[in-house]
Design brief:
Number of domains: 4
Helix content: 40-55%
Protein name: Glycosyltransferase
GO molecular function, one term: glycosyltransferase activity
Strand content: 5-15%
Distance between the termini: 37 Å
CATH topology of the largest domain: TIM Barrel
InterPro entries: Glyco_trans_1, Glyco_trans_4-like_N, Glycosyltransferase_grp1, Pol/histidinol_Pase-like
EC number: 2.4.-.-
CATH architecture of the largest domain: Alpha-Beta Barrel
Largest sheet: 7 strands, parallel
Number of strands: 23
Keywords: Glycosyltransferase, Transferase
């Protein structure tokens, strides 16, 4: 398991709220207290507020009333209420059955002239009043006034969560809430600690002076809405839609002389009076995202089991944006395809039943193949706990759901990897036209599933994704793929619901001066300990972060690397190797664990350094938690493609468009040179100028030599018996320009026959370059300490690359007093001061000529060495990182 310690913010928030709940649990004498879950739903919540639910004709739940009642009784509530949306049908049905219950409903109310909806729990009304309330709910002011006149009890549930129709609400909205209501749900079972704690603190801030000031500001009389408008009370509710957690969170109602009053009054009437008088306290558990995740898991299972075709014409004629309609059409088709996979449907049904305590059927258990036995084991544990030890149910959920996800994810990626490797062995993907076409998808989706075939029924030649035989692949991975998708989708939706109005929460915390979320960056990368420039730069960055305790943690995924201060290492669930990059392994993290780390780590923004898995996960977290995500561009992939392939203009343009679509998903881009920045904000890429930030690298001070000592010890080459030494350091690959070195060395040796060339590094072109440069010394990969020794003993660094976005090797060399000759391109030209710390040239001939002149000028060598060190010292960690933090909105001063 990945080792991770939650942030101080999260731990203190949790401890404070749990202490509050402990105090509330003993607020009233046990023999004068009744329990009720004031907020739960069943099948009569059949018209959802969400547009997608209405488009797809999906109710909020299929839960039968009797099943909800059983769940509430299992949680030992004293009185039942069912608060369905805009109706009390379930309460009336229970009343007809002679079951004592508190009549209630959750009305969706609106503010006049404002596209904003809120929910209001309302209790104690008659059938006639229910109809009137549905008429008045379109004006929340009149709704609240009517409830007060008719002595109806109202509670504002989840006060910090409401429907805004994509408009951002102002916290002034809470001022109206403070005037209109006196009872607030400060413990919602489907919200996390932060939201519940903020609600509680806000309610505590509502003293008489504050409420009177709000009333005056909005020209309202608080006594029009409440008999005692300055006495605020707190309640709790499970907000349960599936009967899984019903009654585990709720409200304690104090009834003085309870036993005596029960002789003449019903429990429901006593609770209603207790609510009117504000004698309440919340009880129960905060589920964080686990409860909501399980709720969405169960909901999806029921959708898969129960959903019917919504009808194409009806869907398209329904009000709503075309985008929403098309997405719902895709969901409908996906559900119809899912219904074809009986194994997956059986699992979903089994999981759904386990959440209500029904253990898997014997035939189902026997029919499960060996790789999926751990899944059934976890499902059985869930069912058993729900039946026999419900107090531990949430803890078991926290353990079992990640176990299920880890099992199916491992199987999915292992099978996917096996299939792709098999396919690629028969049809290897090359970096050419064939490679680009693999990114195309046929418009006929069945062709993608079944594979493209000619008139004789034979598979056609590879021209798009159908050549990978997706149909065959899906036969192997359908269940784990669907299971992974369902789990990830449920977890994503849970986080998105909880943090959808994050800006509003931040504003409220600032206004209250408490529970303010820390400003902290999680920096994601696929590469940290590999032999490449990205890893080297990030390792240097980590040391500066650790030294100055910056609010940044770097997260990577690796099977052997260990976590340390400001470095989080996740264990991979699987890995891929890409032959094009020296078989470099890309490790795949557990996305559910990554979500937990992000939330409990107290992060509120993301930086990502690599486009592969972590790039996708960065965008996932950004959307799930409503936080900004920034991309740090170490590599110019467009340049890489152009220099390592023979793509024509149209093929290259397709890659550019894909990169543009990808980078535009981020809230900002960090780049390392002005040329790259100009390209990113040009029409070719279309990024907004204010979202593209310049940054830089630096060299660790511990490696920088004393420039005076360097100058004294290094004797001019021309007067020394030691042969002049030229150095190339970096990846030995075509895009790095290494095949210019033979021509350069041939020109130099004509004038300086005893010159030596050292090549430090490894790469795919190493063997070919050895044949072209038989007299050069190849060191292979060497550690930083050895590399810096080469810098200090060499006379000149040659950098024939036109690909480097920055050129860490340039800065490293110069920090060790080694001048550099490089092409006048991108990153190097922004570091090298031409004719002061080295030379900027246009071609190999110029590079050779400058080297010859430099090696023959001892006076210039001494000056260049000193200048190189001074220039390198201008790149230091503190100002670079502090500027980066400022660009993402964190100011350290």
């Amino acid at each position: 398991m990945t080792s991770f310690t939650p942030s101080t913010f999260y731990l203190s928030l949790r401890a404070d709220f749990e202490n509050f709940l402990s105090q509330q649990a003993t607020a009233f004498p046990a023999d004068e207290t009744l329990k009720i879950d004031l907020h739960c739903h069943d099948k009569n919540s059949d018209i959802p507020d969400e547009l997608w639910g209405r488009l797809l004709r999906l109710p909020e739940t299929w839960l039968k009333t009797n099943d909800l009642v059983k769940s509430l009784n299992r949680s030992k509530v004293d009185v039942i209420t069912i608060t369905n949306h805009n109706n009390a049908r379930s309460c009336w049905e229970l009343e007809e059955q002679g079951i004592d219950n508190l009549t209630g409903a959750e009305f969706t109310c609106h503010f006049p002239n404002n596209e904003l909806s809120i929910h209001v729990l309302t209790y104690g009304f008659t059938r006639e009043q229910e109809a009137q309330l549905n008429e008045l709910r379109h004006n929340i002011i009149e709704f609240a006034r009517y409830c007060h006149r008719n002595e109806l009890v109202t509670v504002l549930p989840h006060p910090l969560y409401f429907y805004t129709h994509k408009n951002k609400p102002d916290i002034e909205l809470l001022e109206l809430f403070a005037v209109l209501f006196t009872r607030f749900e400060v413990l919602n079972g489907q919200r996390g600690y932060w939201q519940n704690q903020l609600t509680r603190q806000w309610v505590l801030s509502l003293d008489q002076d504050t409420v009177e000031a709000y009333a005056k500001k909005h020209d309202l009389n608080p006594f029009d809405f409440n008999e005692a408008p300055f006495h605020k009370s707190m309640t709790g509710g499970s907000d349960d839609h599936n009967g899984i957690f019903a009654g585990r969170t709720g409200t304690l109602v104090h009834i003085p002389n309870l036993q005596e009053k029960l002789k003449t009054q019903s429990k429901s009437s006593l609770i209603l009076q207790g609510l009117r008088e504000g004698r309440t306290a919340p009880y129960g558990e905060v589920g964080e995202e686990e409860k909501l995740t399980v709720t969405f898991l169960d909901y999806f299972a029921q959708v898969a089991i129960n959903m019917e075709d919504p009808g194409l014409i009806r869907l398209m004629l329904h009000k709503g944006d075309l985008k929403d309609k098309l997405l719902c059409l895709g969901i409908s088709n996906a559900m119809q395809e899912l219904k074809r996979h009986k194994y997956t449907l059986t699992f979903l049904k089994t999981f759904h039943e386990a959440l209500s305590g029904t253990k898997p059927a014997l035939l189902t258990e026997l029919g499960v193949s060996k790789p999926f036995k751990p899944v059934i084991k976890s499902v059985k544990k869930i069912a058993k706990t729900q039946r026999k030890d419900p107090d531990q149910f949430l803890n078991v959920i926290r353990q079992a759901v990640p176990e299920i996800f880890h099992t199916v994810t491992s199987l999915f990626f292992s099978r996917l990897n096996e299939h792709l490797q098999s396919e690629l062995n028969h049809q290897p993907i090359q970096m050419n036209d064939d490679w680009v076409k693999r990114f195309e998808v046929p418009t006929h989706i069945r062709a993608l599933i079944n594979g493209s075939r000619n008139s004789l029924g034979e598979r056609s030649t590879p021209d798009d994704m159908t050549s990978l035989n997706v149909g065959k692949l899906m036969d192997q991975i359908t269940f784990p793929a669907l299971a992974c998708g369902v789990l990830v989708g449920a977890s994503f939706t849970a986080s998105q619901v909880i943090y959808n109005n994050r800006t509003f929460l931040n504003d409220l915390a600032d206004n209250l001066g408490t529970a303010q979320h820390p400003e902290r960056v999680l920096w994601l990368t696929d590469s940290f300990c590999d032999r490449n420039g990205v890893s080297s730069a990030l390792q240097t960055t980590l040391k500066a972060i650790q030294k100055n305790d910056y609010p940044i943690d770097i997260l990577t995924c690796h099977p052997e690397l260990k976590s340390e201060d400001h470095l989080i290492v996740m264990e991979p669930v699987s890995q891929f190797k890409i032959r094009r990059f020296d078989n470099q392994a890309f490790h795949i993290p557990d996305i559910l664990t990554l979500q937990r780390i992000f939330e409990q780590g107290g992060y509120d923004r993301i930086i990502c350094s690599t486009e592969f898995f972590m790039g996708a996960f960065a965008l996932f977290l950004s959307k799930a938690f409503s936080v900004p995500a920034y991309f740090y561009m170490h590599t110019d992939w467009m340049e890489f493609i152009n220099r390592t392939t023979q793509l024509n203009t149209h093929e290259s343009d397709r890659i550019r468009r894909m990169l543009r679509a990808y980078y535009q998903q981020f809230d900002g881009i960090f780049t390392l040179n002005n040329d790259h920045r100009d390209w990113l904000i040009s029409p070719d890429m279309g990024l907004e100028a204010h979202k593209v930030f310049l940054t830089a690298h630096w060299v660790e001070p511990t490696h920088q030599p004393d420039k005076k000592k360097k100058s004294a010890n290094k004797q001019p080459t021309s007067s020394s018996s030691t042969c002049p030494i030229l150095l190339y350091a970096g990846r030995i690959s075509e895009e790095k320009g290494v095949f210019d070195l033979p021509e350069i060395m041939e020109r130099i040796t004509k004038h300086i026959p005893d010159v030596k060339l050292i090549i430090a590094g490894t790469g795919p072109a190493e063997e070919q370059l050895k044949m072209l440069l038989p007299n050069a010394s190849f060191t292979g990969w060497i550690d930083k300490k050895t590399l810096y020794m080469h810098y200090q003993h060499a006379d000149l660094l040659l950098l024939p690359s036109r690909f480097d976005t920055f050129g860490c090797v340039v800065l490293e060399a110069m920090s060790n007093g080694l001048p550099v000759i490089a092409f006048d391109e991108k990153g190097p030209k922004e570091i090298i001061l031409d004719n002061e710390t080295g030379y900027l040239v246009d071609d190999p001939e110029q590079m050779a000529n400058k080297a010859i002149k430099y090696l023959g000028n001892p006076k210039k060598q001494n000056a260049f060495r000193n200048n190189a060190i001074e220039r390198a010292n201008e790149f230091s960690a503190e100002p670079i990182i502090e500027k980066l933090l400022g660009d993402v909105g964190i100011h350290t001063q």
